[in-house]
Design goal:
- The chain is α+β, with helices and mostly antiparallel strands and about 160 residues long.
- It is built from five helices and four strands, in the order αααβαββαβ.
- Helices cover about 35% and strands about 20% of the residues.
Length: about 160
């Protein structure tokens, strides 16, 4: 898959939309020094190319009662074929997992888990994650303080 070639204006458009996805086209056009029609064409082109995947509302987890953030390292059974597809299906069904990455190194997966409290986490861990017969080791770390959190990619 070839990656789209972004010029300076495309990068400015993407940067502005990362910071405010609800920016009206006329304001976006002014920010990137274009007239509204060419700006809208570029945005549509970026969407069609998959550079802009989707638009979302970022929700403050504390305001919706999900104040505990955990990072969970998971090792899977390696006898025979590792059940990566089965694990991926399970992870995708768990609403507590907001991100999951296949990793290199000592662990197979790293999960970002957002829950209400320790009881909620315990229920997730025991009732979902550890019920997977191929999970052989789990290590959890809890976030104490958010130092930086952004969805803006450096363009």
């Amino acid at each position: 898959m070839t990656e789209p070639i972004l010029d300076r204006t495309d990068r400015r458009i993407v940067d502005a939309l990362q910071r405010d996805g609800r920016l009206p086209n006329n304001e976006l056009a002014a920010k990137v020094s274009l007239s509204p029609s060419p700006c809208l064409r570029r945005v549509r082109s970026l969407e069609e190319a998959g550079v802009i995947k989707r638009y979302v509302a970022l929700v403050d987890p504390l305001k919706v009662g999900l104040g505990m953030l955990a990072y969970v390292s998971v090792k899977l059974e390696k006898k025979g074929q590792m059940p990566a597809g089965e694990f991926a299906s399970a992870v995708n069904s768990w609403s507590e997992v907001t991100e999951c990455y296949a990793m290199t190194g000592d662990v197979d997966y790293l999960l970002r888990v957002q829950v209400k409290d320790l009881e909620h986490f315990s229920n997730f861990l025991i009732g979902k994650l550890l019920k997977q017969h191929y999970v052989i080791d789990v290590k959890s770390s809890f976030a104490l303080e958010r130092i930086k959190e952004t969805t803006v990619l450096p363009l």
